[in-house]
Write a structure and sequence with these properties.
heterodimer; A: 393 residues; five-stranded parallel beta sheet; 14 strands; B: 149 residues; 2 helices; 9 strands
Chain lengths: 393, 149
């Protein structure tokens, strides 16, 4: 693998311990994926933040890196295991709080922005079309590639951090135009609302695995609907990128290559809805996986207006989106109704089992998938409207 | 798969008929180590598959189930499972229960990252079927010397 002089200096340790470790990681990954060289990046997004996932071992390694490591590019951070300010409303235990704050502190010392969100593109980490970036968090990766047109592979927390510290990533995979073309063409009928986009993502994710689908037949899609679609594709399958004909920026370049073709019908969508329907009574209803946009929060506020929330309703978003919602009076409407807005976190990475939750209801395909497979919860997947109705009956 | 150089020399004529095998692979993590080989023909998942405090393989039905990887030159085709596996390797190292070196057919990111952050010499692009558990293996960067005992 070709390395520039500066990269060589990093590798032999002339630029410090963290730069050396980071460069060793990138060079090894470059070898594994047959990259010929590294490429400079304009931004990074680091996952692996909840103490529940990082643990004492991860923290030990991060401490070593922070001894002299600083990020060289704009770098944002994925959600933590709790709201960094309102953890007491979540009933998080004291020991977890202290450990979580140690993780946050170590990332902060490396110069990473403590955004604690899976939607970095809503909080100022906004790469441009064609930019090379290194992002962890599969839902953010698929959004950056598909909706923004920036270029990233599906990085792990560690490889994204190594890229942030060196300002580089191995040049392979989705950094090349030829690897961004669709591998399968999917004919669909216009999905109705973010929930049907999520259901579509579940179906196609199961079929295409880590392929790149090109959707045909979608006439309009809001950014939030594309966010829901991508998160489902990336978690149920391992999809790094998708195209929507006439909507996403790189869809037209893909031409009519001979690829596998599928058709998804309304009855396929119905089947997924039924699969996740359960009579179990949810003790937590959560919206915001990936984190809610301001538009989504506004919609939820107007649905809640004048109603009374009778179950635990968590609405998860980034701190910046909440600040905007505060100013617009959106937060007040939600809180008066009895809903809780949580920042910096979500039920996937928070220690929800310890909070006595056994059945969750959500509108998120990704949230449902992880709640079931990672946290072993019983899950009801339904539309935003149904979630609000469930919370207020 | 890259090409694998195999240079096999059989030393004969002495009283103990040791086989010595020299192999050359691709360096994933530089370094020098030696130890007894522990060989698996199956992939290994460190997260969930290996006890992070003792180094004992816990995966049910794995051919190395119950075996301890601590201090061994661990030889297996490639890693599998969750990326948290990298941190498990790191934890094993901190507890003194990590393998002394790793040899893979084709290293993947979980093992590569784990080996680098834990300073465990690691080589890949090696035909791992050439090894038997109990062999004495010395590694120096990409060079491997195997002594059959």
């Amino acid at each position: 693998m070709y390395l520039s002089k500066e990269e060589e200096r990093m590798l032999i340790g002339e630029l410090g311990y963290a730069a050396q470790k980071a460069m060793e990681i990138l060079v090894a990954l470059g070898k594994i994926y047959d990259a010929e060289r590294l490429v400079p990046i304009t931004s990074a997004h680091v996952s692996g933040v909840s103490y529940a996932n990082v643990g004492e071992d991860g923290l030990g390694f991060l401490e070593e890196l922070a001894s002299d490591g600083k990020v060289l590019v704009k770098t944002t951070l994925n959600p933590a295991g709790m709201d960094l300010e309102r953890w007491s409303t979540m009933n998080i235990d004291k020991e977890f709080v202290e450990n979580q704050l140690r993780v946050i502190d170590v990332y902060s010392r490396m110069g990473i922005e403590i955004t604690c969100t899976c939607t970095p593109y809503f909080v100022g980490n906004e790469p441009r079309m064609g930019d090379h970036i290194a992002w962890g968090e599969s839902s953010a990766v698929v959004y950056a590639n598909s909706v923004i047109g920036a270029r990233t592979n599906r990085e792990s927390g560690i490889s994204a951090l190594a890229a942030a510290i060196t300002g580089r990533t191995p040049l392979y995979g989705l950094h090349f135009e030829e690897n961004r073309r669709p591998t399968v063409e999917v004919r669909v009928q216009q999905p109705k609302g973010d929930f049907e986009f999520a259901c579509l993502g579940i179906i196609v994710g199961r079929i295409v695995g880590d392929g790149i689908p090109l959707f045909k037949g979608i006439l309009h899609a809001e950014p939030d609907e594309l966010k829901a679609l991508g998160a489902a594709l990336a978690s149920v399958g391992g999809v790094p990128m998708f195209h929507v004909e006439g909507i996403t920026p790189e869809a037209e370049r893909s031409a009519d290559k001979a690829v596998e073709k599928l058709t998804i019908t309304e009855s396929d969508i119905m089947n997924v809805k039924e699969e996740y329907a359960t009579e179990a009574n949810p003790d937590l209803i959560f919206l915001g996986c990936p984190h809610l946009s301001l538009t989504e929060l506004k919609g939820i506020a107007s649905a809640l207006s004048g109603k009374k929330v009778r179950k635990k309703l968590w609405l998860c978003c980034s701190r910046s989106v909440k600040l905007e919602a505060d100013r617009l009076g959106v937060t007040q409407v939600i809180e008066v109704a009895g809903g809780t807005i949580l920042c910096d976190t979500c039920p996937i990475v928070a220690p929800v089992k310890d909070l006595g939750v056994t059945v969750v209801a959500t509108n998120s395909a990704k949230g449902a998938w992880y709640s079931r497979n990672l946290n072993n919860l019983c899950v009801r997947l339904m539309s935003t409207e149904e979630c609000i109705r469930e919370a207020t009956i | 798969m890259r090409k694998v150089d195999v240079d096999r020399r059989v030393h004969q004529g002495s009283d103990n008929m040791n086989d010595i095998l020299e192999l050359k692979g691709r360096v994933i993590k530089r370094g020098r180590a030696e130890g007894e080989a522990l060989v698996s023909s199956q992939p290994i998942s460190f997260y969930g598959g290996v006890d992070p405090d003792t180094g004992i393989i816990r995966e049910r039905g794995h051919e190395l189930e119950g075996k301890n990887i601590a201090g061994k030159v661990l030889i297996f085709p490639h890693g599998k499972g969750s990326t948290v596996g990298s941190y498990i390797i790191y934890r094993l190292k901190r507890k003194g229960m990590a393998p002394s070196a790793i040899i893979n057919q084709r290293c993947e990111p979980i093992v590569a990252v784990g080996a680098i952050i834990s300073d465990i010499p690691t080589v890949d692009c090696i035909d791992t079927s050439k090894f038997k558990s109990g062999d004495w293996v010395r590694i120096e960067d990409g060079k491997i010397v195997v002594e059959r005992r």
